[in-house]
Structure formats: C-alpha cells, structure tokens
Design goal:
- The structure is a single chain.
- This protein is an alpha/beta fold.
- The protein is 41% helix and 17% strand.
- It contains 11 helices and 15 strands.
- The protein has a 7-stranded mixed sheet with strand order 2-10-9-8-5-3-4, with helices on both faces. The protein has a 4-stranded antiparallel sheet with strand order 11-12-15-14.
- α2 packs parallel to α9.
Length: 386
C-alpha cells in the first residue's frame, strides 16, 4: 500500500540514514567469495542476535530472495543427504528454477518451464477461512498435517528421503494468509520426529513487517533455516540465508555469490535495521493493529468482504461474491484495486481474490486512516455496480 498523490508519504525515515551510510563506504564492490570485508561480519553478528532460532548461526549472502531460497534448498540436501522437499500449495518462493519448483501460487509461468527441479511435493495449506463445511478450524489444520504424515511421507516423499519442509509464516502472494501457530508447531513436530529440516521463507513477511522481527516468531516455533531479502536492505539487492551453525556444514566452495553481500547493500541493511529497531517494528505492531480494525468492521457492513487476516502491516482482505457461498470475486477485486489507484492509492492483488495491504513500516495513523477511507469507498462503489 502506497499513497502516491501525496508526496509527504513517498519518502521514508531510513532514506537520509541510508544515504549517509553509503557515502561513508570506501568501496562499492568486493567479492565475498575471495575476501572478507568487515561489514559482512558486522551484519552477520547483528542478524545472529535477532535470528528466530537459538544457538550459533551462520549466514550466506546473495543478491535476492530467490537466491537465498536456492541456497537453502542446496544446503538442506547437502546436510541431510536427502533429496525430497515439501512445500505448500499457494506458496511463492521465487522465480529461479529451484525456487520455482517450490512455488505453487499461480498457473504461470511454471507450466511453460516444466520440468522444474525434481523431488518437490506440494501439500494443502491450512486456510481456515476455506476449510470444508462442517469442519472446525482445528480439525482442518489437523487434517492438513495428517495429509503430510500419512500420505506424503508414507507414500510419495518417504520419511528417510525428505530433506526439508518449506513454509511461509505468512502466505503473501496467494492470499496474505498467516500460518496458524498450531499448524507451524505440528510441522515442526514432524520435522523433529523424522530428522527433516524446517525452512521459513521470511523474504516478504520478515524484517519487522509482522510487528516482530520475523513472522514465525508469532508461532513460537524455531526454524532450522530462514531466508531473508527485500525489506532487510530497503529494497537494495541483498538476500540472506541464516542457518544453525551445525547445519551449515558444507565445505568451502560448495556455494557462493560474486556480488552477494557487497558493501553498499550491507550498509543499506544495517541502516535499515537501525530504523526498524528504533521505530519501524513497534510502528508496524501499533499501526497494524489499528488498521486491522477498519476492514474487520467493513466485514460487518459490506457483503463483499469475506475475510480479513494478517499480522502487523501485512493485511489481507478477501473479496467474495457472497458471504455464504464464499464465491471468489476475482474481477471485483481487480476493480477495487483499479479504483484505489485512480484515487492515488496503491494496493496489490493477492491470490485469486484478496487485496494485500502492506504500507511502509513508518506509515502514520493519519496516513493509514486515509488509506482505509479510500478502500471503503472503492469497495462500496464496486458493490453498487454489481
């Protein structure tokens, strides 16, 4: 979410700090595959302190989220000496061939690029709003977990052949749908029981957006590996994979990136972390809670608002044709997004029929209220037109 007709919201608090940090660098490039640069170590130590898993941590630097995911897949297979990987329907993990094999959020572009990397099995994501009729939320979650244990690990991706389960703590691309704590805990239990690694893709949900450093921290589960990018360096090309030190045990040269962790992006990340620590994460929690109340109230008065979910400043509003049938309102969703754009507000569609609300982490309450006013206006206009 971004208000484009009011210049006062187009800049961020981190901009001046970010520019100052970049200007202080003696080098704009060096190859971390051959030499160390002090700031690479400094950032790694800072990330270790806030990592969502306990114990010593090791870091790998790349240029993007998809590179971090590729590195995680490679490390999982290297460490476990297994080939199988489990991912969820609706997931988005990237567009390079390995990450694309995990992705199942839309029909394109994957079919035209098949076959992707083999060994990946997709399983149902526990979306409690779309649970089968007559089933409780907990029953639906339990059924999805049983599918992994009884079907996939027994018949398809055998227990002793499965290297990792990839999860998104918040399924962003498909429907901005947070993973329920019990779902995450059950996945972690399966991993612990069978020696499978638990991977958390925090590329979009991490770096403070959920109101905590990492969205998985809302579940109480500690992953083995996390992938980070996008917000961690304010959009500069930096991807990071963090793993427990005993897991990142590959020999030197097993994986590398020529430009990953270059000095400019490292400084951008540390300047961004300063802002997140000082104001951004707290603001995401407070303003996110405030913003959630508006679309929740809209659900009481607007027949097209089917479900509202999210954490912090990552909120999803699912648009339906009818609340009882929950029929998908794809075209209506697109029209709401278009109308908002015409009024100077940027939203993104998520999945087939959801609206993703993801403003800058420094958004003010006044700006948030303006955005919610525009959203309500646009939903009302579309409802009157159908």
């Amino acid at each position: 979410m971004w208000i484009i007709s009011r210049p006062w919201i187009a800049g961020g608090t981190a901009v001046s700090q970010w520019n100052h940090a970049i200007q202080q660098r003696e080098l704009i490039h060096m190859s971390g595959t051959d030499f160390y640069y002090e700031s690479m170590i400094t950032l790694a130590k800072r990330l270790e302190k806030i990592a969502p898993m306990s114990g010593p941590i090791r870091a790998y630097y790349g240029n993007s989220g998809t590179e971090a995911v590729e590195a995680a897949m490679k490390l999982a297979r290297y460490h476990t000496k297994r080939q199988g990987i489990i991912a969820f329907y609706g997931a988005f993990h990237g567009r390079t061939m390995g990450a694309l094999s995990l992705t199942a959020s839309k029909a394109q572009p994957a079919p035209s690029l098949f076959p992707c990397r083999p060994g990946v099995t997709h399983v149902p994501y526990p979306n409690v709003y779309r649970k089968p009729e007559g089933m409780t939320a907990e029953e639906h979650i339990a059924e999805c977990v049983r599918f992994i244990e009884d079907r996939v690990l027994r018949l398809l991706c055998r227990r002793r052949k499965c290297a990792a389960i990839f999860i998104e703590p918040s399924k962003v691309k498909a429907a901005t749908c947070p993973l329920q704590p019990s779902s995450c805990a059950n996945c972690a239990g399966i991993c612990d029981q069978h020696g499978i690694l638990l991977m958390a893709d925090e590329v979009q949900s991490g770096a403070g957006r959920s109101g905590k450093w990492w969205a998985i921290q809302h579940t109480g589960v500690e992953p083995d590996i996390i992938t980070i990018a996008k917000g961690i360096a304010s959009g500069m090309p930096l991807g990071v994979m963090l793993a427990r030190a005993e897991i990142m045990d590959w020999v030197p040269g097993s994986h590398a990136s020529t430009f990953g962790g270059n000095p400019v992006c490292i400084e951008a990340a540390m300047a961004t972390m300063d802002v997140l620590e000082n104001e951004g994460i707290h603001n995401a929690e407070i303003i996110g809670s405030h913003m959630m109340k508006r679309p929740q109230r809209l659900g009481e008065t607007h027949p097209m608002v089917g479900d509202v979910r999210g954490r912090g400043l990552m909120i999803g509003v699912e648009i339906v044709k009818d609340k009882k049938t929950k029929a998908i309102a794809h075209d209506e969703r697109d029209r709401i997004v278009e109308l908002a754009f015409e009024r100077g507000l940027l939203f993104l569609g998520a999945g087939e029929n959801s609206i993703r609300i993801a403003p800058p982490l420094i958004v003010t309450q006044e700006q948030a209220d303006i955005a919610m006013d525009v959203l309500e206006e646009c939903i009302g206009m579309v409802e009157k037109s159908v």
